[in-house]
Amino acid sequence: MSTGNRQFTLVARPQGMVKRSDFAFAEAAVPEPKDGEVLVKTRYISLDPAMRGWMNEGKSYIRPVALGEVMRAGTAGEVLSSRSPAFTAGDQVVGTWGVQDYAAVAAESLSKVDAKLAPLPKYLGVLGMPGLTAYFGLLEVGLPKAGEVVVVSGASGAVGQVVGQIAKLKGCTAIGIAGGADKCEYVVKELGFDACIDYKAQDVKKALREAAPKGVDVYFDNVGGDILDAVLTQIRMKARIVICGAISQYNNTTPVKGPSNYMSLLVNRARMEGMVVFDWAPRYGEGIQAMAGWMAEGKLKSREDIVEGLETFPETLNKLFSGENFGKLLIKV
Amino acid sequence: MSTGNRQFTLVARPQGMVKRSDFAFAEAAVPEPKDGEVLVKTRYISLDPAMRGWMNEGKSYIRPVALGEVMRAGTAGEVLSSRSPAFTAGDQVVGTWGVQDYAAVAAESLSKVDAKLAPLPKYLGVLGMPGLTAYFGLLEVGLPKAGEVVVVSGASGAVGQVVGQIAKLKGCTAIGIAGGADKCEYVVKELGFDACIDYKAQDVKKALREAAPKGVDVYFDNVGGDILDAVLTQIRMKARIVICGAISQYNNTTPVKGPSNYMSLLVNRARMEGMVVFDWAPRYGEGIQAMAGWMAEGKLKSREDIVEGLETFPETLNKLFSGENFGKLLIKV
Question: Model's pTM, two decimal places?
């Protein structure tokens, strides 16, 4: 047993944006797998907005990361040794073993992936939780019908880019909302969205009224705050708003900004519904199969933003909240 | 043709609570019905929270009352003369002819009611829009299942009292939220709710946690504001929140308070959906029949708060917003 397993351990509940001092960064021993466990080497770490919520105390859809615990994160890597018949050394796997170089984890917590079919980072993005969130959130909660107008915020992000492309595949008009001309250009020119609103440069309400003069049927919300409020003014009768996240509010040190315009739900007989991808776990295979098929046909593209070095974790995570990332954010270890 | 038709005409868009000066109160001629019209004498005027919204400019689910127009209101009364084969003098009818003594209205805008089956005021309450709002809003949007916990705010009001009783009829636990010990006592002792929280005397969140330790499955919201936010903290997985009104916000001169705790929808995979009773117009007969049946069996009670005198209109309307009314608020003309 050697040392050399670098780990980020949560040591303080962050106030606002995370700081390096909210974590201990130290080396531990590379663990020894027990019976039924697998020793994995981390290749990629997924950075997701939800991670900010996991650092807070209090009831949520998943238990908070405890103080003194390795920070939870989606991960992809390679099996080094296995004490489970389900895996052998050299297997490429994804799991949630956290921000560290190595882990000994229960075999049931891992999924084998085919790195020949798609590069490993895709399994943390379009073929992983973000892609599945987009797939089930849009199709099962948003319930878009061909000809309808689908709007998605965080449009160039891990979830948003998939939402808009699936909307197009289903015959809808797809309108993105993103921060910056480069991101907007990407989702329109590369991903085929019909339009994109740059919330940093445009008045979202006015721009939406121009891009969707008949209004919005489905809004897939990743950001909350003022953008949710602006879209609420532009919804159509029987609109569906999928509440997937509220990245604008995750670092608040003041109370969350509730949507002042929520009475538009009444005027328009519309609904707002929350979703968590875990609920579709029994159907992940269906989602991955559909998306891998579209990828093979060139109909579903995705972009990753890969930062090198596990040691960059706190600063890299904050890129999500400052909007500096462009595509699915990952650390390459 | 005589004068003697007293009318309240909207002359200013109210700021905050309505003032007498927002209306002109004057006498016009009693109108002469044209072909296809009916001359009606007003007996009761319905006072509904929604009326405050109708006085505001801007797009809503119904066009605003224009300046110079008689104030819109639900009404019940008697046919004096008819130029339509559908009605004859002496018929008891309900309609929406507004805050005035007489009106000549299109026959299609009236419904005949049987004053022997139930007194006229009931047709503006439990057998009218408020009752139908409760019936379709709870059953079609709230979708309560036997054994679930249903919470309703404005519990002693025109809609709330019906919501809780239908919840009980469907095998649910019914918890009211109302302002004052007398109202709470009424909904529990007279109407058979399981519990009632007096929001003026109790901490709603804490009281709900005690009354519904497993959480809330359906919340029928008539009030918005802090009470909506408190209930959001206590919802169960897959909860349904019916947005029927937001009486706490209708007289705001500052922006509406959005529900800060709306992310509880995500954590609990819950939904919040707006409803307007007009959408169920083709099924009103079904709702009235069901409720009249329950009334006949003594299973559905209702209370009216009847104020005498058309001339009291502005002050009587404000009773809704100060919470002074106790039961369905009506003016007897």
Answer: 0.93
